[in-house]
UniProtKB/TrEMBL annotation:
The lineage of its organism: Bacteria, Bacillati, Actinomycetota, Actinomycetes, Kineosporiales. It comes from Quadrisphaera setariae. Coiled coil: none annotated. Belongs to the methyl-accepting chemotaxis (MCP) protein family. Pfam families: HAMP, MCPsignal. The chain crosses the membrane at residues 28-47, 205-227. This is Methyl-accepting chemotaxis protein. The keyword Manganese does not apply.
Amino acid sequence: MTSSPAPAAAPATAVPAARRATSISARLLVLAATGVAGVVVVGLIGLQGLDRQGTAQTALVRADRAAALAETVDARQAKLRGDVVVPLVTDDVKQRAAAIAALGADATQLRDALRQLEGSSTGSTRQQTTQLLAQTEQLVTLAQRVVSLANLQVTDPQQVAARKALPAFTTQADAVSGAVPALREAASAARQAALDEAAGARSAALWQTAIAALLAAAVLAGVSLTLRRSLRRRLQATVGLLREVADGRLDRRGDVGAQDEVGQMVSSLNTALDHLSRLMSQVARASDDMAASARDLTQVSGSLESRAGTSAAQAAAGSAASEEISVTIRSVADSSGEMSRAIEQIAAATEEASTVAADAVRAAEAATRTVAGLAQSSAEIGDIVRVITSIAEQTNLLALNATIEAARAGEYGKGFAVVATEVKELATESARTSEGIVAKVAAAQQDATAASAAITQISDVVDRISALQATIASAVEEQTATTREMVRNIDEIANGSVDVTRTISAMASEADLATGDAGTAAATAQRVASAAASLETELKKFTV
């Protein structure tokens, strides 16, 4: 892993007030507010146009109604004329009665139509309608007078009075009929004006709505493009930074710029890169430490394996020496048996006392040398056991050091920690076994001392036999008992030497196992070293 002297772009820790732009969410809110304002303006313009169209439509409806009422007035005044003429031209009573009834209904409808027209009219049209309504009242009065005079058949069977009143009615009817076309024209003009107003309002609303929509779209597009350019430039820079980080350039940093969401993201990315750089540096140092620990562990494992092999060789030598001691003790036992038989022969033949005594002296000297050799062998076994104990303590110490190194290695040292623990347990077991051997060797030395003392007593007895033949019988009896005790002690020594042999053999087996464990520890150290090398290779891909 390489390190750069300085990052390409240092993160901005303090942003000037002029660069502290609003956040992206605020700018998006402004963009949305601009769009909403544009929609509201367009809507208000549209509503204004709709209001004008509604007013024009109302005027159009009023004009259509005025035209319809004008037609109704024209039709009813014409019908009123017919109702007046019928009583003058027929003598049928029923027809006259029907005409009189129709006259009242038509007069009422004519008045209602004119009143409705007056209520829906404005300006000059309303004045014309008011004048026409007054003329219609006069017309109805004249019509009723003509009809009433026409029904005076008893006093005026020729209807002279009615015919005299008819011209005035006709003149008034012509006046009313002549005023109706003016109402029609006024209604038609009002209708056309309403149509023109509606068309103008619709056209104006369309133009105003289109212009407002274009202006709102232009403002919205300008704000959007400004926001897009500012965000795109900074996001592209952030993407470029991330690509360099993906290529292992952990020394790169982004320009925070404005304190908006993108700036906060870049600041957080810079902080994360700082932490990651420190972490990779720590990992690199840990990798170096792990490699060094692996090398130390390899050396310790080699030393442990060498010392374990030495322990195994010494244990094998101790086992061979113990077997030799066993053979020697058996020889001493056989010699003791022969000496016992010699004493019995002395009891049977006192004349051979001197010869047998001399033989006994020589046998005692041989036994003394043998016991001395046994004591020396026991001392050598004790030295060997002390060496084994020292090796076990060193092995235990090395296992403890290996456990500490494995703990420092972390996850890669777990397997080696298990092996180190097993080696430590084997070393502890070897120490306990050595302590047992020391105890047994001490017992063997005590037995050898006792045997040496017994042999010394035998020498004294033989000397006394040589000096005092008279006391041979009692001396032989005493020597027989002493010889039996010596044989028993020698048997015990022989059995103890067998146990020592077994113990040393077991210790040799444990030393072999320790050698194998040391080899396993060395292999584990090699794997840890390989893992550390692989980790270092991967770390070199990053630049901090």
